Amino acid sequence: MTLDPVIRPRLVLLTTALGDAGAESVMRAALAGGDVASVIIDPAGRDSASFQRFAEGLVPVIQAAGAAAIVVDDSRCAGRVGADGIHLSGGDLRALDEAVERYSPKLIVGASGFETRHDALEAGERLPDYLFFGRFGGDVADPPHDKNLAMAEWWAEIVEIPCIVLAGRSVEGVGAAAQTGAEFVALSGAVFDRPQDAGAIVARANAIIDSWMESEAA
C-alpha cells in the first residue's frame, strides 16, 4: 500500500486583530518572519472609506513579499486596491455563486460562514478556491477551537478543494491545526496581539509546522 504524501500546510494571516497604527510596518515584519501564503484583509468594523485606506496600505506590502492579498466582503475595494482575491464571510450560497461566476479564475474566491458539514459541502459545489473554517475574531482561546479542527479534518479527508483552519490565540496551537490535514493554517491574534514580535511569531509558526512535518516523515 502506498501512502499519500503529507502536504506541508502553509500559513495565512488574518488581519482581524491588526490595528491601524503602524499596520504596514507590522505586516512587513510579520511577512519577513517566514513563509506566508496569503493575507486575508478583514474590515473588522471599519467603515468602507477607512477599510479602503487600510487595504491600500497593506496590499502592496503583502504582494511585495510574494503573498496573495485577499479582501473580505468588499469587491469594490478589492478592485480599487488591486487585491488578488475576495473572501465572502457571510455563509451565503447565492453570493458565493455570483462571486465565483464573476471573478473566478481572475481572482481567488474564498468563503467562510458555512458551519455545518451539509452547508460546507453545498458551498464546495460552487467550486470556490478554498473554504475557511473558523469565525473571524473567534480565536479567543489559546488552543484552536475544537469545532474548527473537526471540520477541517473531515473536509481535508474527503474534499479536494483546499481549506484554511483558524488556529488559536497562541502560536503553539499551529501544530494541532496542521494535524487536521488542512492545506492552510490561519493566525490572527497570535501574531497581531503582539505586533512588536510579529516576525518572530511567524517564524515560530513555521518552525512548528516543519517539526510536525519531520515527525510525520519519521
UniProtKB/TrEMBL annotation:
Source species, domain of life: Bacteria
Protein name: Thiamine phosphate synthase
Pfam families hit by this protein: TMP-TENI
Keywords tagged on the record: Transferase
Keyword Transmembrane helix assigned: no
The protein's Enzyme Commission number: 2.5.1.3
GO molecular function: thiamine-phosphate diphosphorylase activity
Residue span, Thiamine phosphate synthase/TenI domain: 23-190
Any one Gene Ontology BP term: thiamine biosynthetic process
